Amino acid sequence: VWLRYSPLDYGASGATADAAVIMASRKAEADEFYKATFALFSEADDSPASADARLVQRQAFAGLLWSKMYYHFSPELWLKGDPGPPRPPPERWGIRNYDWMHMYASDVISMPDKFEYPWFAAWDLAFHCVPLALIDPEWAKRQLVLLLRDWYMHPNGQIPAYEWNFNDCNPPVHAWAALRVYQETHRVTGVYDTVFLGTVFSRLLLNFTWWINRKDRAGKNVFEGGFLGLDNIGVFDRSKPLPTGGVLEQSDGSAWVAMYCLNMLAIAIELANRVSIHYEDIAQKFFEHFVYIAHTAFSPSGANLWSEADGLFFDSLAFDDGRHLPLKVRSFVCLIPLFATMHIDASSLARMPEFRRRVEWFLRYRTEMFPELLSIVQTRSDGAIYLSAVSRTQLERITQTLFDEREFLSPWGVRSLSRAHRDAPYVFDYGGQQYRVNYEPGVSRSGLFGGNSNWRGPVWMPVNYMLFEALLEHHRFYGEGFAVCVPTGSDRVMNLRAAAFNLAARLCAVFALDPATGTRPCYGGKPLPDQRDLVQFFEYFHGDTGAGLGAKTQLGWTSLVAVPSLKLHEERRLW
Questions:
Q1: CA-CA-CA-CA torsion for 102, 106, 111, 116, nearest 10 degrees?
Q2: b/e map of 43-61 (b: 16 or more CB within 10 Å)?
Q3: CA–CA distances in Å: residue 469 to residues 56, 124, 286, 455, 527
C-alpha cells in the first residue's frame, strides 16, 4: 500500500506514480551513506557471514532512527486538570510524580519501543545514544543534553527515570554515554565538541551531588540505589522497604557511583587538556572521591561486600546494631564493580602538572589506606595511571567465575544470574518466610517487580556491552601480563582483550544466520522463511538458547549490538 501526504492534487492515479523511483533513490543514498561511513560496508567482502553482519547492522541502525517519537507530558496539567470540569480526582496527588511540577516535556525523544505508547527511560536513552553517535552524532548529543535541561532534571539534581515514576533510580550512565558520544563525534567529524562536553559536565555536577546526598545514607561511601534497573535480580524488591529492616548496601549501587566518579574524572581531564587548566581542581575531587569509594566499598577490609570464600562481590544487609549479612546471590550485581576502571595516559598527566603533583601527594601520605591504595591506583613504567575498584587478585577471582559456562558465560553472552542457581537456588529465611532466587533463563516465573522482565538468567545487551568495554580497559594496563581461560577450565588461554572480543562475538552470534538451517538463535532456532532476513531486536535473550524474549521491538538498547559488531570487524581486520 502506497500513501503520499502532499498539498498537491495528483488526481486519482498520479499520487504514487513515481513512488518506486523515489524509494529506489532513497535506498541508494542510504547504501552510499553506510559505505562512506563504515569499513564493514565499503569493503568488497561478499562472504555470507559479512553480508549477514551488514544486514543486521543496517536494521539495528534503521530501528534506532525509526524509534523517534513526540512525547508530551506535564505533571502539573495531569494533577490539576483542565480549567473546566470535571476536576481530576484528588487521589492523584498521592500517587506519583506530584513533586515534579517543574517538568514540561514537549520533545521528540528516542523511545525504547515505538510499538508501545510513547514513553522514555533515562538509562535506555543513554544506551541509545552510543550507537546513534555512529550515524547521527548531533542527534545523539541533543538527546543526552535534553534530560539535563531545567524542564526535565529536578531542581535537586535527579534525572527523571521514566513516566510511571520519575523518582525511580536508574544507574548513572549519562556521563559514560556523553564521553562515548563525544569521542565518536570526533572520530566522525574531526571536531572536539568541548561545548557539548562542558554543558553535560556542568549539569551532571548537580546529578552527582544528588547521588552522594541521597544514596549514601550513612555518608561512608557505600551506596544504595534500589532496583537500579535490574528489576527482579535480588532476593527482595530493592525499590521497596526491606522486610528485614536495616539498609541494603549495594555492590552495584556502589560500583555505579565509582564508575560515575571515573567518567566525571575523564571529562574533567579532557576539558582541562582542551579548554582550561582550571578543570584540574575538579578532576582532583573526582579522583579522590573514587579512591574513597573503592577503598571503603570494595577492598577486602572495607564494607563487607567482598566475599573471599566466593571470590565475588555481594549486596549486604546492614543492621542498626552493626551486623552485616551478605546476600550471596550470584548475579550480575557481583560483576558491575569491574566497570569502575580507567586508564590515564602519561601525556594527559604531563599537561596537568598540578593534578599530577596532588595525586602523587595523595599516594604518598594517605598511609591509612595502605596497602589497598596501591592496588586501587597503580602507575605504569611510562607514567600512565590505572584506576580500578577491583584489585588484580579480585579480578583474577571474578573472571574465573565470569567465564565459567557452569556459571555466567553462555554461548550468547553473560547471563544476568549464574546457572549454578539452577541446581542450587539461593534461599533466604527471615521471620518465618522463605525467599528464593532460582535460575530462570527465559521468561520470569516471579511476579517480583511486575514480572514483565527477568534478570534471573537471561542475557541483556546493555550491561554485556559495558562489560566488554571494561575488559578492554583492564587490558590496557595489564596487557599480556594477565591471562584467562575462556571458557574457564579449557585450554584456550587469552589476554583480556581477546576475552572481550570473544564476548563480543557471542553477543553478535545471537542474531547471526545459520546458512545450513536458515535460522537465527534470536528466533529460538525456528525456521522462518518469510522473516529470515527481518531481524527483531528483542528486549533480552534466553540464557541457554539465545531465543529473544520480552518486547520484540526493543530497538533502543538492544541495537547497541551494532557497536561491538563494528569493533569485532575492525579487530578481525587487524588479525
A1: 100
A2: eeeeeeebebbbebbbbbb
A3: 21, 18, 21, 21, 34
Among 355, 231, 209, 215, CA closest to 297: 215
In 3-state terms, the chain is what percent helix, strand and coil (to 5)?
45, 10, 40
Phi, psi (degrees; rounded to nearest 5) at 105: -100, 125
Q: How many CB atoms lie within 10 A of CB 145?
A: 16
Return the HEC string of 317-379: EECCCCCEEEECCCEHHHCHHHHCEEEECHHHHHCCHHHHHHHHHHHHHCHHHCCCHHHHEEE
- Judge whether residue 387 has pLDDT over 90: yes
- pLDDT value of position 280: 96
At residue 510, φ and ψ (nearest 5 deg) are -55, -35
Q: What is the pLDDT of residues 101-127, one digit of tens each?
A: 999 999 999 999 888 888 899 999 999
Whether the predicted pLDDT of 575 surpasses 60: no
Q: Are the C-beta atoms of 220 and 212 separated by less than 8 Å?
A: no
pLDDT tens column, 501-522? 999 999 999 999 998 888 999 9
Whole-angstrom distance, CA of residue 299 vs CA of residue 340: 13
The alpha carbon torsion through 275, 276, 282, 283 (nearest 10 deg) reads 70
Are the C-beta atoms of residues 224 and 447 closer than 8 Å to each other? no
In this predicted model, what pLDDT tens digit does every residue of 287-309 receive, in sequence order? Answer: 999 999 999 999 887 778 999 99
Question: What are 45-75's pLDDT values in tens digits?
Answer: 778 888 899 999 999 999 999 999 999 999 9
Q: Beta-carbon neighbour count of residue 64 at 10 Å?
A: 26
Which pLDDT belongs to residue 450? 61
Q: Which residue has the cell 584467562?
A: 484
Residues 538 and 552 sit within 8 Å (Cβ to Cβ): yes
Amino acid found at 173: V
Secondary structure of residue 474 in the 3-state scheme:
helix
Q: Is the pLDDT of residue 334 over 60?
A: yes
Mean pLDDT of 474-503: 97
Q: Is 410 helix (H, G, I), strand (E, B) or coil?
A: strand
- Per-residue burial over 459-468, b if 16 or more Cβ lie within 10 Å, else e, is bbbbbbbbbb
Contacts of 139 (CB under 8 A, 6+ apart): 132
Handedness of CA 56, 536, 420, 224 (dihedral sign): positive
Structure confidence at residue 238 as a pLDDT band (50, 70, 90): confident
Phi, psi of 438 (to 5 degrees): -105, 155
